[in-house]
Every structure is written in structure tokens, then in C-alpha cells.
Specification:
InterPro entries: Quino_amine_DH_bsu, SOCS_box, SOCS_box-like_dom_sf
Radius of gyration: 22 Å
Order of helices and strands: EHEHHHEEEEEEEEEEEEEEEEEEEHH
Protein name: SOCS box domain-containing protein
Strand order of the largest sheet: 1-18-17-16-15
Number of helices: 6
Shape: globular
Length: 417
């Protein structure tokens, strides 16, 4: 695999390039640049003031001061999702110890949980487990037992509860994701079997709220993500195969059959725990990104930056074979243990052919952003999609004179739903 360090900045001197110049610069370079070439570099302030949008990134929030599992969850950032804090001085919160409730939990409990569930049935929100589009899955607690709730944010409606567990889980023990077609929710949590000490995957049907399938995990720290090309039938998952703690597998669901496994993900460690922080597919599903960071907590020194930045490594794998293709390494002034993942995770452009990261060099405290060209994989159809998405803004796609299934394909809908 090719290993590449993020290119150094030039002492923070980024010039006065405007948004239109960013577009012209990218269009000029993107045709001739090789995969993983640096297409654009700017300060974080420039990114926020227009460079990100000009480079066709709809997700432009790259930093968050929230603490993971307190203010944010691995799947939900209060800053990125635009969540507003509820005034804690309101009488609604006066009867409970405020230190036990997060900003995120307060918001959803106050605004989205029906009053009879909160006050009469004693349901409380612990965190957001996962979200996709307008659907949000909440971690709920009632009488010291964990359950999961479904919310439709567009209709502002509470849809129901599923997955009643025998005990109350801490937020750190849970991981969840909704399938690309919105029909299934896969949740990882500690087993509740008598005598059990490990973790399990439980797959639920969101519409019926019934358990579809479950499987015991070989390692408690396994991470997973749905393949965006499939409606709900395939996931990428780490450390899924017994005796393979440094592995990445493609797995069929709900049968849990292993399609293929790469037994060597990290070149320097035998286990992916605790360095592996997140796993995600590219928008078109042809690449898998495993994000690893150095361990250690620097929260007290973060503002003064009296410590070495964390090392971030993005390992890139083939979405069909799980074989490693590339590695990008860079530095970031953040806490790899408690910082919101947004502060060091990559984001992808609307066309899916560019990746942006926020990073620091060791000579200047300035945060800056670099945009890299991703390899274009797949058939001619996918290449045409990238070109179309680089030409037309997202809000105009549904207005194009094209068949519905083709419009859905341009919007990265799985199997052209």
C-alpha cells in the first residue's frame, strides 16, 4: 500500500483566493491530477467562509468542541447537525441533577419525546445512537433498562420503541447504524445472556421494530458500516473473524456469512483497539476508510497546545476485496479519546471524488484544510455520475430531465431506489 503524509502548509500564508477562484483551480487540476494528489489547501477560516462550499462539499463543519459521549456521539455531532442547546434554567430540568444529562439528550427529551413517556412512563434519553436523513435512533432508559426509540425529524413524530434490554448500558458500550435504504438498524451492545461477557450484533427491522437476526462477536471493539451500494445486505466490519483482531471483513447480512477478509489492517499493531475510531465507506461504496489515532488524553492542555498533536492515519481499502490501497497520515491538535470525531475525520465532496481533512503542522497553530483527489473506481456509469455531480449542484439534480431511477442513482440511492 502507498503511504502518504499530508503535505505541509506554507506558514499559514494562504493568500486571498475567493470562492470562484477555488472552483476554477479545482476544475483545472482535477482532470490531470493523479489519485491522492493535493487539489487545494486553505485555512480553516477560508474553508468556513466559502472555500468548502465552492469545492462542492455540502458538509463543511470540520471542528467541534463537544466531548464524545457527553455532548456528541460517534454518529451525531451537536455542532454539525445544528442542534441548539435547551435553556437549562427552564423548570422542566429543575427536578433532576443537571450534571447527568447531556446537551444532546436534553434537546431530544424536551422536544421529541411525548410527555406521557417522559413523565408517566419515566423514559429518559441517554444519547443519539445513530441517524440517517430524517430518522434518528435514540438510546432510551426506563427503570434501569436500555431501549431504543425511533424519531422522524421531518414529521416531528415519535415512531415507537424497540430492543428492550435487561440492563442499562452506558453510551460508550453502544454502536448503531441505519441501513442505506432505511429499513434496518444494526446495533452493537454487551450481551445480556446469562454468563455472557462479550458483545453482540442485533439487527432490527425499523418498520416492524422486531429483531431480525443476531450474532455473538469475537471481539468487543468491532466496528461496522453498511455498504452504500446495497440496500441492507452487506456490511464492512473489523475484528469479526475469531483469532483475527487486526482484520477487515465484508459480511453478508442477515446471514453473517463472511465474503472476504483482510487479516492485516494495521501494520504496526496486532490489535485495532484502541486506535481504531471509525469506519466508513466512500459515497459510491468503492472505498472503505478506517480512521486510527494515537491514544492518550490531552483535554487539559488542548487550548494551550502544550503537547504533541495526535497522529491520524486513514487506511483506505477496496470496497469489494477489503485489500489495502493507500494510507494518509497527518497531525491534529485534538484529544483522540474524548474529542468529537468531527474534529479529525475526513469528509467527502458531493460528487464523492474528493476528500477533505483538517490538520495541523508543527510550526504553526493555524488549522488548515487540504483536499485530495480520490481514485475513481467502478464502471463508466459511476464515472459519468461523478462528472454530472461536478457540473450540477445537488439542489438541481431532481430537476434534470432524466428518469427517476437515474436521478436516484445520481443521489447515491442504493440499487437506484
Amino acid at each position: 500500500a502507498n503511504r502518504m503524509g499530508a503535505q505541509e502548509s506554507s506558514n499559514g500564508n494562504y493568500g486571498l483566493m475567493g470562492a470562484s477562484a477555488v472552483v476554477a483551480n479545482l476544475n483545472k487540476q482535477v482532470q490531470s491530477a493523479r489519485p491522492w494528489s493535493l487539489l487545494h489547501q486553505c485555512s480553516l477560516d477560508q474553508w468556513n467562509s466559502g472555500h468548502g462550499a465552492a469545492a462542492a462539499f455540502s458538509e463543511t463543519t470540520l471542528t467541534c468542541n463537544g466531548i464524545v459521549f457527553k455532548d456528541c456521539s460517534p454518529a451525531f455531532c451537536i455542532n454539525r447537525q445544528g442542534l441548539l442547546n435547551v435553556n437549562k434554567s427552564e423548570p422542566f430540568f429543575s427536578f433532576r441533577r443537571k450534571s447527568k444529562f447531556t446537551k444532546m439528550a436534553e434537546h431530544f427529551e424536551y422536544n421529541h419525546i411525548p410527555a406521557h413517556l417522559s413523565s408517566i412512563q419515566n423514559f429518559h434519553v441517554n444519547s443519539v445512537l445513530c441517524c440517517q436523513g430524517h430518522t434518528v435512533i435514540l438510546h432510551l432508559v426506563r427503570n434501569l433498562m436500555t431501549q431504543f426509540g425511533i424519531i422522524d425529524l421531518k414529521a416531528n413524530k415519535f415512531l415507537g420503541i424497540f430492543g428492550n434490554q435487561r440492563v442499562e448500558f452506558v453510551n460508550e458500550a453502544l454502536r448503531g447504524e441505519i441501513s442505506p435504504d432505511g429499513t434496518l438498524c444494526l446495533i452493537k451492545h454487551p450481551t445480556t445472556k446469562i454468563g455472557g461477557s462479550g458483545f453482540v450484533f442485533q439487527l432490527y427491522n425499523i418498520n416492524t421494530r422486531e429483531l431480525v437476526s443476531e450474532v455473538d462477536l469475537a471481539y468487543n471493539h468491532a466496528l461496522f458500516v453498511f455498504d452504500p451500494r446495497c440496500c441492507s445486505s452487506r456490511i464492512a466490519v473489523t475484528s469479526f473473524v475469531p483469532s483475527e483482531d487486526n482484520s477487515l471483513s465484508l459480511v453478508q447480512v442477515p446471514s453473517w456469512d463472511v465474503i472476504t477478509t483482510n487479516s492485516r489492517v494495521d501494520d504496526f499493531n496486532s490489535s485495532l483497539n484502541p486506535s481504531l475510531k471509525d469506519l466508513k465507506f466512500s459515497r459510491d461504496g468503492h472505498l472503505i476508510f478506517a480512521v486510527m489515532v494515537t491514544s492518550g488524553c490531552h483535554c487539559k492542555e488542548r487550548k494551550a497546545r502544550r503537547f504533541q498533536p495526535i497522529d491520524v492515519s486513514i487506511y483506505v481499502f477496496d470496497g469489494d476485496t477489503a485489500q489495502i490501497l493507500h494510507c494518509v497520515q497527518y497531525h491534529r491538535y485534538a484529544c483522540g479519546q474524548h474529542s468529537c470525531l468531527v474534529s479529525y475525520m475526513p469528509v467527502f465532496s458531493e460528487c464523492g471524488s474528493r476528500m477533505a481533512i483538517v490538520l495541523n503542522d508543527l510550526e504553526t497553530p493555524i488549522d488548515h484544510v487540504q483536499i485530495y483527489k480520490l481514485p475513481i473506481r467502478g464502471n463508466l456509469q459511476n464515472r459519468c455520475r461523478i462528472r454530472i455531480l461536478q457540473t450540477f449542484p445537488p439542489e438541481t439534480l431532481k430537476l434534470l430531465p432524466l428518469p427517476r431511477r437515474l436521478i436516484n442513482y445520481l443521489c447515491f440511492q442504493p440499487d437506484y431506489l
